[in-house]
Amino acid sequence: MIERADAVARQLADNAELLGATAVQVITADALGWLSDQPAQAFDIVFLDPPFALGILADACELLDRRGWLMAGSRVYLETDAGAGLPPLPPRWALVRDKRAGQVRYGLAEVGSGSDGEQLLGR
């Protein structure tokens, strides 16, 4: 988990410890800076729920894709303000789910192996 607010990062770490989630690592940093600066390690599941007002969801998606943080078949959960909607996704990402709950729009994307994503909604 990457969280820039110290207090929130401490709470996340405390909750992970309370739950016995030993595989959880909480990093206190700016997520976009961290994704840009660190050597990429491919993940198969990623949750993106940045503060909606910052408008950084598209940038986070682009960094994850371009820098090699995702492998083919990875799933990425996306969350944003319902009024803004989901951003354009990188070409090899396919939107599997796109829903709205109150003031939140959320989706699930699957990362493909090629350069052309395809819409998978409704499958």
CATH superfamily of the largest domain: Vaccinia Virus protein VP39
Number of domains: 2
- Beta strand %: 25-35%
Largest sheet features:
4 strands, mixed
SSE arrangement, N to C: EHEHEHEEE
In the predicted model, the low-confidence regions spanning at least 5 consecutive residues are 116-123
Helix % is 25-40%
What overall geometry do the principal axes of the alpha carbons give?
A: globular
Based on DSSP secondary structure assignment, what is the total number of beta strands?
6
Task: List the defining traits of the structure above.
123 residues; alpha/beta; Rossmann fold; four-stranded mixed sheet; 3 helices; 6 strands; 25% helix; globular; disordered C terminus
Task: Describe what is shown at a glance.
With about 120 residues, this protein is α/β, with parallel strands linked by helices. It has three helices and six strands, in the order βαβαβαβββ.
